[in-house]
Design goal:
Layout (H helix, E strand, L loop, with lengths): L1 H16 L11 H11 L4 E6 L2 E7 L4 H12 L7 E6 L3 E5 L23 E4 L16 E4 L6 H11 L5 H9 L12 E7 L1 H8 L16 E4 L4
Helix pairs in contact: 2-3
Amino acid sequence: MKKIVVLLMIALMMGACKPKSIEVTKANVREVLMQYGKDNPENDVLIETDLGNIRLKLYTETPLHRANFVKLIKEGNLDDAEFYRVVYEFMIQGGEPALQLPYRLPAEFNPKYFHKRGALSMARPVENNPEMESSAEQFFIIMGTRYTKEDLQSEMQYFGLHLTPEQQQTYMTEGGSMDLDQKFTVFGEVTEGIEVIDRIAKLQIQGTEAPSKKVPMKITLTQVK
């Protein structure tokens, strides 16, 4: 009997010590995530799949998106995540499809970051979203295609983009999806396992944006860099 009482006391103490999750709302999203980011500085993410592993670096210059992604991982909101939307030579989109959080993320566009191959970006509702706020749950990684010099100049003009010479060169040599720049927030990039994106994207069923089989993932935070 004493043993049971002791165990119950330990369980209660552990529950009391566990940090309480602060609910994020439309009203407090900036305040809560900025504080959460200060308290949780991780920026290195590992995604494990049956087709290989992908390592990501999150940008400190997009603090709301970084903090939100870390919060999703730590609080288990991505425990059942999968890559459920794949488009070859464009991107692979992941998250928990059924998850709907009660807030969106204010856009954090940074001209330094663009949708090059391997860019990590947050999805967003297209309609009724004039501020281009990001989804709080769904993310995607760019596979992209390479641009010719002519296509690059044409699309820069069409989309009103001002890319640096280095960014232009990246689009021509590595590829990406320029049409998403300054419309979706890039908040990280692939540092290892870029080839895994191609393997997942190749699962696209012709005529759809669905993979031919489920691609579950395990997402963890690793060392701080």
